[in-house]
Amino acid sequence: MLSVALVLAVLTVGEEPEFATEAIFTPEALHNHASCVVELADGSLLVAWYRGSGERQADDVVIMGSRKRDRGTAWEQPFVMADTPGYPDCNPVLFAAPDGAVWMWWPTILDHRWEGALLKYLRASRPGTEGPPPWDSGGVFHVTPQRFAEAMEVALAGLNGAVLKIAETYFEEIRTRSKDELYQRLGWMPRVHPLVLPGGRWLLPLYSDTFSCSLIAISDDAGRTWSFSTPLIGFGNIQPSLVRREDGTIVALMRENGPRLRIRQSTSTDQGQSWGPVEETALPNPGAGIEAIRLTSGRWCLAYNDTVRGRHSLALALSDDEGRTWTRRRHVERSQPGEDAFHYPSLIQGRDGTIHLTYTRRTEAGSTIQYAAFTEAWIEAGDPATGEP
């Protein structure tokens, strides 16, 4: 195995490039996946993920969590954040809201298919200091896309005979389902942090495996009410990560869930209300989650699997031109294809400038959620020995 050897170190932000990593808990046989990390108002970290004997087909899957109070302390013993007995709970997304509240969205899978995902939420007005946040409200998060069937027809017509190596019956199936209100309103799931715009608008990225497309939930009143954007339909573009450019343009970078093997992209110039065509970028994607953020330096940082097959290589990239090109790259983990998996990154930058990353780490020892903390300079330095950009 060629996994990168990483040693836990003490970070000194703003000085030499530094990197530190640790498992949040000992690797185990259970499936641990789809983490999301946030920094709370007191500087501590809260992470959530799902754990069980499988994914959507395993009824013992629950949402777990852990906290880290500061750099010198260990992660808390994992605790249950949410559980719907007898149903799989998957893909949690955490949000540390500007008012200090903590939100969590996740789907409960009703019929052991992603199409049967019922989106739910919990909110804690204060996050607490240990264990799960003291949730004081929650319920079903109703998703009501507008003019969805019409948007799907436009997207289908826009293929212009393009060959996507997808059976024609697939397109007929999604055309039929797009006209069905139940299919329109079920199956929406979160994956990546919400984005807060300068004017206070919240944008919560959602996606559907039913239609292999994305949708943005919009709130202009701190989560009290929600509306929905036009859908981002590109027949494979899911799990959008949103980053805002200086001119106000919002870029959605998305996992590819089809045959193109490239990260997908769309842009909005009206604060996330409507979206342009879904295009391909030059960045590879093997059908795995990504996340991009804007750093305090103005650079963008992207965490992704830089392969077209397999999840054995997890990289970080930097962009100096707001996502148009990615000039520096450094690997967090690498191994031989087919041996290990390092995937589904969750990426934030703390108020002190430290960049925090959590991700699924699966090796022969089992699966865990891995945590890494590092400086922007560490990415800039490139891979050891090669200085690979």
What's the story with the biggest beta sheet? 6 strands, antiparallel
Report how far apart the termini are: 24 Å
Order of helices and strands: EEEEEEEEEHHHEEEEEEEEEEEEEEEEEH
Number of strands: 26
Low-confidence parts: 1-15
Helix content estimate: under 10%
Computed over alpha carbons, the radius of gyration is: 20 Å
Overall shape: it is: globular
β-sheet strand percentage: 35-45%
On the 0 to 100 scale, the average pLDDT is: 93
User: Which class of secondary structure composition applies to the elements?
Assistant: mainly beta
How many helices in DSSP terms? 4
Plain-language structure description:
By secondary structure, the protein is mainly beta. Among the domains are: 29-141, Tachylectin-2, Chain A, CATH 2.115.10; 143-283, no CATH class. It is built from 4 helices and 26 strands. The chain has helices at 148-157, 168-178, 181-185, 376-380; strands spanning 19-23, 31-39, 45-52, 62-68, 79-82, 93-96, 102-109, 117-124, 137-140, 188-189, 195-196, 202-208, 213-219, 227-228, 232-233, 237-244, 250-256, 262-268, 279-284, 291-294, 300-305, 313-319, 328-334, 341-349, 355-363, 366-374. The strands form 6 sheets. Strands 10, 11, 12, 13, 14 and 15 form a 6-stranded antiparallel sheet that branches. The protein has a 4-stranded antiparallel sheet with strand order 1-26-25-24. It has a 4-stranded antiparallel sheet with strand order 2-3-4-5, with no helix packed on it. The two termini are 24 Å apart.
